[in-house]
Amino acid sequence: MKRAITVVLTLVACALQGTAPASASAPAPTSASIPAPPGLTSADVSFTGFGGLTLHGTVLAPAKAARPVPGVVLVTGSGAGVPREHLLTEATEFARRGVAVLIYDKRSAGYSDFRRSYSELAVDALGAVGALRARPGVDPAKVGLWGLSEGGWVAPLAASRSADVAFVIVVGGNAMPPIRQQVWNEESALRRAGVSGSLIEHGKRNFARLGADAGLFAEAFFDAEGVLERVRQPLLGVWGGRDLQTPPEDNPPLFARALRRGGNTRYTFRFFAGADHAAHTTPDGGVTRGEALAPGYADLVGTWVHDATSGRPPVADAATPSKQDHASAEISPSPWWASGWMQLVAFALFVVAFTAYPLVALVRRLRGRTVRPVSRWARLLAGAGLTSALGLFVYIFYLMAAGRTPDPGPVLGGRPLPWLVLQTLAVAAVAAGIATAVAWRRAAATVPAGERVRLGLLVTAGVVFVPWAVYWGLLIP
């Protein structure tokens, strides 16, 4: 059953996105050597990651250093096979602050939209740490990890497993499960379009749960706080004030709480007003990423790394977090009655019951047999119930496929017009179900046995439809 849910949702999601499911065995792309920026050296390296996969990277380092320098491995955000050049700006600026920096091509083998493992990515990151520690001119006792976005889950996990990691830096990082962060991300896009109410608070959130149930949301409930409790190294957290992907106000207190529970007070939190998710400048409030780093960000990293690796670690140094437009919501796994299994059963019932009623009537008419309907309301129940059930999943799939730039349609009172139509159909289906049940009961003695089965299936679907529609927000303002 779970496999069936997964296959159906995967195919529909891929159709809406216009893509095929990503291959878990696709080879990682390789990059040409990166020329050394002025004042720096550039050297290509290779190392072994999870499963024996060979990964390739480049080390940028100060050209003239009187003594071995600290080092940092940059762990990028989500996406399969992200090339090392994606973090070239960060690598160049950090290296100019006296730090050797390793950037590498992210794996695509074993990583796709629907399958990823932070544990495996952590093994890759530790392989990179080992490669950087072995480089001439790098102090092996002063090599740490920097993680952006998804890397903000991976870097602390790697650090919690190895004393070879001297420090941790997270940028746009999360101390919350990925499902909570992602739902906040998608909600933010809809709220910017003027949407509020049940589509966000029920439709989107429960759809994310369903995806996790079906195995389409990899690492959905990853225990980020549990990992941070095991981190003993100094940690620098950086967030942009216009981060539209990660809640910049909710996360720092979660980081502090988890680190303190583990006895670690060696952390620094800093916030850059006007910067985006990656602490880059942004021309439009976080929607578009500029090429340059936020002013002062690279200086902060350089100074902090030198201090943290020279016997001057921070002590619970946290500035006031940036304000975010709305709070994120904790999201738990689906209860049994709303699980993927139960959703599939309910949906199958709707399709069979709501489709069977008009089909039986059509077959009878073609055969020249007519049976007076118990109630005209039954037709409305079948039509409105099926349309609203199918329409809900199609509409939410459409919004999901749009990513950070959804077009929900015209918005009236916080509700998109397509959502209002679906809600109207749901209300009509409920009203028609009640009227059909009443009419059936009044005429029960005169209804033929075959018609009783047909009506019984339809009314049963109508009864199940009510709590289902409430759960998905179709019957909630």
Automatic annotation (TrEMBL):
Residues 1-24 form the signal peptide. The keyword Transmembrane helix applies. The keyword NADP does not apply. Residues 122-280 form the Peptidase S9 prolyl oligopeptidase catalytic domain. Keywords: Hydrolase, Membrane, Signal, Transmembrane, Transmembrane helix. It comes from the Bacteria. One of its GO terms (biological process) is proteolysis. The chain crosses the membrane at residues 336-360, 380-400, 420-441, 453-474. GO terms for molecular function: carboxylic ester hydrolase activity; serine-type endopeptidase activity. This is Alpha/beta hydrolase. It comes from Actinomadura soli.
